[in-house]
């Protein structure tokens, strides 16, 4: 096993702060003309190869049980048809052109959704059995989820809170896929460290999982822990997030951070946020946990292509290819240089332009340019920046390597102490 820096928070630890439950609203019926426009499922139209770097002590690099780390990007052999990727705390989920998914990494709590009883089988990609074609995948610390083309959502693994494992459903941990929101068609899903968010075809938001940091947007502080008379059901059963009854809000996009959620309203373009805000990482002026949805005005005036958030910072990509960050500065995760302060609102990263993708790891940030170059910055203790060093980077650094030659990066996903990327071959 490779030793882990004490600065890194291992992803098997319990989560953090504390949310009773009122009766949940029923989802209104809406006419077809008001159905949400299609959100971005982050799926490539062309199959590519998978690369991994960083720490691999539990197989999260997908390179076999003998590979404990990679300081620069390494191709995971055998697959040239990957169209989407998701990195969890210590595992990954990848989508193939056929609609089949592959998982690899830590399976202690069922996050791989498949049998790994054969020694070493968790360290290489292998398929998960699902009842249909998958069009989107997500991954949290100890859970994974898949959206099927017919709108069904399946998940497996477990959520965690400050007391340890919560289970995925009221029945406990789920080691094989289980349907999460029967009888509802879902357009997109998003996973935080320990919560799952679902966007319905009618533009409504459902959440489940840990509520201690406000990330569910529907549980008040007193009911956020499992030690209430309501038990785990209000947390683990997906339920509607209530928004203003005075406004007929209709959402068409959703993203998550480690302990937070972002959703976009279709008509106004407003970004509603809820969750942990102790370093202003969700863009609200008051650095307190937000248990109910609020509009983050810092997102106003731009159209956002993608938002990703780590433990204490957020990175966002607008439709012009510009990259913005906010939140905690430590370890260089904002990419604004050694003299910067914590960013209380979205701040442009001036050294980047013409980007097509961004991602946050736990304390790292990544950006992909339209020319296929990958930039990384932030904490590099486990080699998860792919620079060949274990140093932190205060500003974006171009990731290089022999196995990147002749390849065009199009997607990146940051995990706990590892990173994966999707590339097209020339």
Strand order of the largest sheet: 2-1-30-29
Helix content: under 10%
Structural class: mainly beta
Specify Rg, calculated over alpha carbons. 20 Å
Q: What are the low-pLDDT stretches, counting only 5+ consecutive residues below 50?
A: 1-36
Shape: globular
Number of strands: 30
Distance between the amino and carboxyl termini: 36 Å
Into which percentage range does the β-strand content fall?
Answer: 35-45%
The biggest beta sheet reads: 4 strands, antiparallel
The average pLDDT score comes to 92
Count of individual helical segments: 1
Description:
This protein has 426 residues and is mostly beta strands. The chain has one helix at 233-236; strands spanning 49-55, 69-75, 82-87, 91-96, 101-105, 126-128, 134-139, 143-148, 153-157, 159-161, 164-167, 174-179, 186-191, 195-200, 205-209, 239-240, 251-256, 260-265, 271-275, 290-295, 304-309, 313-318, 323-327, 343-348, 355-360, 364-369, 374-378, 393-398, 407-414, 418-425. The strands form 8 sheets. Strands 2-1-30-29 form a 4-stranded antiparallel beta sheet, with no helix packed on it. Strands 3-4-5-6 form a 4-stranded antiparallel beta sheet, with no helix packed on it. A hairpin with a 3-residue loop joins strand 7 and strand 8 (143-148). Residues 1-36 have low confidence and may be disordered.
Q: What does the secondary structure layout of this molecule look like, with pairings?
A:
Elements: E1 49-55, E2 69-75, E3 82-87, E4 91-96, E5 101-105, E6 126-128, E7 134-139, E8 143-148, E9 153-157, E10 159-161, E11 164-167, E12 174-179, E13 186-191, E14 195-200, E15 205-209, H1 233-236, E16 239-240, E17 251-256, E18 260-265, E19 271-275, E20 290-295, E21 304-309, E22 313-318, E23 323-327, E24 343-348, E25 355-360, E26 364-369, E27 374-378, E28 393-398, E29 407-414, E30 418-425
């Amino acid at each position: 096993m490779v030793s882990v820096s004490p600065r890194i928070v291992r992803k098997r630890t319990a989560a953090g702060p504390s949310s009773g439950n009122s009766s949940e609203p029923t989802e209104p019926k809406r006419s077809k003309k008001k159905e949400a426009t299609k959100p971005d499922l982050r799926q490539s139209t062309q199959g590519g190869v998978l690369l991994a770097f960083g720490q691999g002590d539990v197989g999260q690099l997908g390179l076999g049980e003998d590979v404990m780390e990679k300081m620069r990007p390494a191709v995971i052999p055998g697959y040239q048809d990957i169209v989407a990727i998701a990195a969890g705390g210590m595992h990954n989920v990848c989508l193939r052109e056929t609609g089949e998914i592959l998982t690899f990494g830590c399976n202690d709590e069922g996050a791989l959704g498949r049998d790994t009883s054969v020694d070493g089988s968790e360290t290489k990609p292998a398929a998960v059995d699902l009842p249909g074609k998958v069009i989107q995948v997500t991954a949290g610390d100890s859970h994974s989820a898949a959206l099927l083309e017919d709108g069904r959502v399946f998940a497996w693994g477990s959520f965690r809170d400050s007391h340890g494992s919560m289970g995925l459903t009221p029945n406990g941990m789920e080691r094989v896929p289980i349907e999460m929101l029967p009888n509802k068609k879902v357009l997109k899903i998003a996973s935080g460290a320990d919560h799952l968010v679902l966007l319905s075809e009618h533009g409504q938001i459902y959440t489940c999982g840990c509520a201690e940091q406000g990330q569910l947007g529907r549980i008040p502080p007193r009911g956020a822990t499992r030690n209430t008379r309501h038990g785990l059901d209000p947390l683990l059963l997906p339920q509607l997030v209530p928004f203003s009854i005075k406004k007929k809000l209709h959402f068409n996009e959703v993203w998550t951070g480690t302990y937070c959620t972002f959703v976009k309203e279709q008509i106004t373009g407003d970004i509603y946020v809820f969750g942990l805000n102790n370093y202003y990482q969700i863009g609200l002026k008051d650095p307190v946990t937000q248990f109910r949805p609020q509009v983050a005005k810092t997102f106003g005036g731009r159209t956002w292509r993608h938002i990703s958030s780590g433990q204490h910072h957020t990175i966002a990509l607008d439709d012009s290819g510009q990259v913005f960050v906010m939140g905690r500065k430590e370890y260089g995760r904002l990419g604004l240089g050694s003299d910067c302060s914590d960013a209380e609102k979205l701040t442009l990263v001036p050294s980047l332009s013409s980007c097509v993708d961004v991602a946050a790891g736990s304390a790292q940030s990544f950006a992909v340019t339209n020319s296929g170059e990958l930039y990384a910055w932030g904490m590099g203790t486990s080699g998860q920046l792919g620079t060949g060093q274990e140093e932190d980077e205060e500003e974006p650094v171009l990731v290089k390597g022999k196995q990147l030659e002749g390849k065009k990066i199009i997607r990146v996903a940051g995990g706990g102490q590892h990173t994966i990327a999707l590339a097209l071959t020339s």
